Amino acid sequence: MPRLTIRLSPRTHRALKEASVRQGRSMGAIIEESLELRGVRPISTAKEIVARARGRAELTADEAMAVAVRETGLHREGR
Fold first, then answer.
1. pTM of the full structure
2. In whole angstroms, what is the distance from residue 61 CA to residue 63 CA?
3. Averaged over 13-42, what is the pLDDT?
4. Fewer beta carbons within 10 angstroms: which end of the chain, N or C?
5. pLDDT tens across 49-74, in order?
């Protein structure tokens, strides 16, 4: 697994450590989950969403992209 070094403010670092202890998870796991919730994913994920949208309906490429954009936004909002 790749490694990454980041700089955090002392306040954020302390909050992350506390959350890690409370949740019984590693700081890396919390950071990774947070990035995913903010929509940080490889482009292949967006392409998969478009492919699923096109497979479910007779949509043009533009219509499928519009559905994918809408669904991605809803997913990011937690709906």
1. 0.55
2. 6
3. 92
4. N
5. 777 777 776 778 788 788 888 888 88
User: Is 22 found in the same domain as 36?
Assistant: yes
Is position 71 within any domain?
yes
In a domain, 23, yes or no: yes
57: left (phi over 0), alpha (psi -120 to 50) or beta: beta
Shared-domain flag, residues 36 and 50 = no
Asked if residue 32 has pLDDT above 90, the reply is yes
Indicate the number of domains in the chain. 2
In a domain, 1, yes or no: no
Angle formed at CA 71 by CA 68 and CA 73, multiple of 5 degrees: 110
CB burial readout 11-20, b (16+ within 10 A) else e:
eeeeebeeeb
pLDDT top residue among 46 and 61: 61
Give the domain extent around 34: 9-40
Residues comprising the chain, all counted = 79
